[in-house]
Amino acid sequence: MAFQRYSASYVRISCFNHNTAGLLLYYKLGFRPVDLEERKGPDGKRVVLIHMHLCYDAIH
Question: Contact, 50 vs 7, CB < 8 A?
């Protein structure tokens, strides 16, 4: 949708490491990790926010 409607060259999403189902789905759709960001969860434990890109060229 972003590629056709907005002529985007890429889409960027972010997903926390504990969201395994989301990470697997995004990977299956063609998103690839490009950066990691360490954060603290609500309980104070370390978590990772994984930034992912889907490039237009990768799917066309």
Answer: no
Return the number of other C-beta atoms located less than 10 Å from residue 3's C-beta: 15
User: For position 7, what pLDDT does the model report?
Assistant: 87
Residue 43 tokens, joined: 């309980």
First-to-last CA distance in the chain?
14
| Domains: count for the chain | 1
Q: What is the mean pLDDT of residues 18-45?
A: 96
Handedness of CA 37, 34, 59, 7 (dihedral sign): positive
Dihedral sign of CA atoms 12, 17, 21, 25 in order: positive
**Domain boundaries, position 55:** 2-59
> Phi, psi (5° rounding) for residue 49?
-95, 120
